């Protein structure tokens, strides 16, 4: 008898959970991305105790067909790719089919979903990877996903959780970024009943900036709008007198995805030339659109890092357009911006 055997699905899920579900914010991310992939225009997130007690994500998306509800929790079960070559034309945020089984392996999950508009839906309850309930229920179209007692059966992982404030910080950072990159979706984030974020989903980035950074910030923004052969740039940067002590207020969205890129950060700062006080950074929310062949999003697994194929051209384009936006502002000061 050999010593090697294939692990059973339950253990495999618990191992995968170690990678997919690092902390409450990872659960929020996976559930919200599923809601976006389902075409939702409204996504409500409610967490208790930094997400350690519960995380609830409600959406108005496509819902899950009754016969798919159990399958959705199987490992590598996905509706987003069918065959190998789909991997090279992915337009959804998810495709690995790992999130639901991983989350369900380390928490108590209740899913209520309906893919029809007739008030009929399905309820699933899973505890630590074990299916407890799969039955018909009344439900409106969309999905209501509740995750309770995360890591209740993995005490070693639970021990590594930081304070409620820290865990909440990770969740709200993620939600702010997402709201800024998707002004077309109405988001709410609530913690222990208090509303931390509410966006309208009407496509107005300035409204989201006001919701995330406050109305003063929104009033201090200058519009940027430009395009050349390769790139379209649009969004807002703050006037040089509205700055912060760190770069966290600089949001870059490339082809709809929030990214981080040092070269672009520098290009934005150069665009301010000598206007910025030393060691101060602007607020910026900039959307860049380009042909997918000009950007490689797969450099880092979390997909925050990207690589551009024509870096110098892109950076000088951004720098010049930011500079131009500020010069515009000096030439035609807008009375509404005076505080
Ligand atoms: P992936 O997103 O990689 O496909 P997941 O484990 O996150 O894998 O989800 C499995 C499947 O469950 C998805 O492919 C999708 O069909 C379905 N699903 C999950 N969440 C939702 C949702 N909020 N609305 C509609 N379908 C969903
Ligand atoms: Mg997913």
TrEMBL record:
Name of the protein this chain belongs to: DNA mismatch repair protein MutL
Domain DNA mismatch repair protein S5: 209-327
Position of the signal peptide: none
The protein's role, per its UniProt record: This protein is involved in the repair of mismatches in DNA. It is required for dam-dependent methyl-directed DNA mismatch repair. May act as a 'molecular matchmaker', a protein that promotes the formation of a stable complex between two or more DNA-binding proteins in an ATP-dependent manner without itself being part of a final effector complex.
Cellular component, GO annotation: mismatch repair complex
Molecular function terms, GO-annotated: ATP binding; ATP hydrolysis activity; ATP-dependent DNA damage sensor activity; endonuclease activity; mismatched DNA binding
Keyword tags: DNA damage, DNA repair, Endonuclease, Hydrolase, Nuclease
Biological process annotations from GO: mismatch repair
Family: Belongs to the DNA mismatch repair MutL/HexB family.
Source organism: Paenibacillus campinasensis
Keyword Amino-acid biosynthesis: no
Gene: mutL
Keyword Ribosomal protein on entry: no
């Amino acid at each position: 008898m050999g010593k090697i055997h294939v692990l059973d699905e339950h253990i495999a899920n618990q191992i995968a959970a170690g990678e997919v579900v690092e902390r409450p914010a990872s659960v929020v991310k996976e559930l919200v991305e599923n809601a976006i992939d389902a075409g939702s225009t409204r996504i409500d997130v409610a967490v208790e105790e930094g997400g350690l007690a519960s995380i609830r994500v409600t959406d108005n998306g496509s819902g899950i067909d009754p016969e798919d509800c159990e399958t959705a929790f199987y490992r590598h079960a996905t509706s987003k790719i069918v065959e190998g070559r789909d991997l090279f034309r992915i337009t959804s945020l998810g495709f690995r089919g790992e999130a639901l089984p991983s989350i369900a392996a380390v928490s108590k999950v209740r899913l209520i979903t309906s893919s029809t508009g007739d008030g009929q839906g399905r309820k699933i309850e899973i505890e630590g990877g074990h299916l407890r309930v799969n039955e018909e229920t009344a439900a409106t179209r969309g999905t209501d996903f509740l995750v309770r007692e995360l890591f209740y059966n993995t005490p070693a992982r639970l021990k590594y959780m930081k304070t409620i404030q820290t865990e909440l910080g990770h969740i709200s950072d993620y939600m702010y970024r997402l709201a800024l990159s998707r002004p077309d979706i109405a988001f709410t984030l609530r913690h222990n009943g208090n509303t931390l974020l509410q966006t309208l989903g009407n496509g107005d980035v300035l409204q989201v900036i006001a919701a995330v950074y406050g109305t003063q910030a929104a009033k201090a923004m200058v519009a940027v709008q430009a395009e050349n052969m390769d790139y379209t740039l649009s969004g807002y940067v703050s006037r040089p007198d509205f700055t912060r002590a760190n770069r966290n207020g600089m949001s870059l969205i490339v082809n709809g995805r929030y990214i981080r890129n040092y070269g672009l950060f520098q290009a934005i700062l150069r665009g301010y030339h000598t206007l910025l006080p030393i060691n101060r950074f602007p607020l910026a929310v900039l959307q860049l659109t380009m042909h997918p062949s000009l950007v490689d999003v797969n450099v880092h697994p979390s997909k925050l890092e990207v690589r551009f194929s024509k870096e110098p051209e892109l950076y000088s384009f951004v720098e010049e357009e930011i500079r131009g936006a500020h010069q515009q502002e000096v030439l035609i000061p807008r009375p509404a911006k005076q505080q």
